[in-house]
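Most newcomers find our protein records easier to grasp once they have seen one. A learned vocabulary of local backbone shapes supplies the integers on the structure line. Here is such a record, shown just as it appears in the course material:
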Amino acid sequence: MSKCSKMNTMFFSVFVALVLMPGCADVRTKKPPDNLSVTQYKEAAESGDAEAQYSLARLYYEGVFPSIKVDLGEAEKWFRRAAMQGHAKSQAYLGAIYGNGQGRKKDIVESEKWYRKSAEQGNIRGQLSLAYMYYLGRGGVKKNYIEAEKWFRKAALAGVPRAQFELGYYYEKGLGGVSRNYIEAEKWYRKAAMQGDDNGAGHLGNLYYTGRGVQQDYREAVKWLRIATKHQSAYALNALGVMYRYGHGVKQDFSRAFQLFNVAANQYMRSSAEAQNNLGNLFYYGEGVEQDSVVAIKWYRKAAEKEVIGAQLKLGDIYIARVKLFDKITWKRLNGIKKQLYKGLPLGKTTWGLYIIMVKVLSEIDMKQ
């Protein structure tokens, strides 16, 4: 999973994922007991019973009771009354209503306030929502990996698989003041995977593939990646595709690699930039598909736009080779920068930025040729 693709996840989609997430208590409304009518709910809510106010709000929020239709205005009213009494679940829902602009104008400041009130009482939904708000830096909230990690950790320690995965990712990448530690990453990924989290399983599989934090074991890698691909994890599909491309732990099969890369690269809202780059490689080299540089460039561009450096450099190579045919001065300049990059010599941001800009310019020139 690339950092860029994680950042581009829309906050609303994150919230929806939280609502449906395994391991979050109280995520679906249940039909009220037969012996408790809507009238009784309303009477209890009017009398100031916070739990009844919350339950009534849920009925208006989701409209699952035959005599009550969805009414976000009523839902907000009752969530607010319960939230003002310190009801943590209602506070989390109120945070979602403000954060997603449901039935009202979006207000991230109010959303953060109510999520925090809920999170500070130990509510899982509040903790995760607050963590993602800071992790993504959406809607005017300043991105803050340290604050996000704090809430991910609290939820992870409470046994929530999605939070365990995110904490593992922090350790794998060394984010937010957390020192990179593959052993800790493996521990948290395994905890998440054992509870059915496909992201945890996919990343655990990749640790076995690369031998980071564990002894390298292709069989274990394939096992965990296949578990993750059952739920169409783009990350796992791409990683398993790499194993089929190179014949690591499985019989080399370019056609199977193409199938896996293709599914991962074309997923709506969850496409893998790495898979797009790998599709570009298959088409560029003619592995399992007919060689087609035009299609290869298409996939390289998609990946390059998502900051996959390998795709950016590959596009650079392609354009450098082509520009040599009609502009040798520009070619020498670009080729010199390319050699520095390939040697791993330190390049300033200005030089790197210039390289990317020139590649884009050459891309436009190339399209006109």
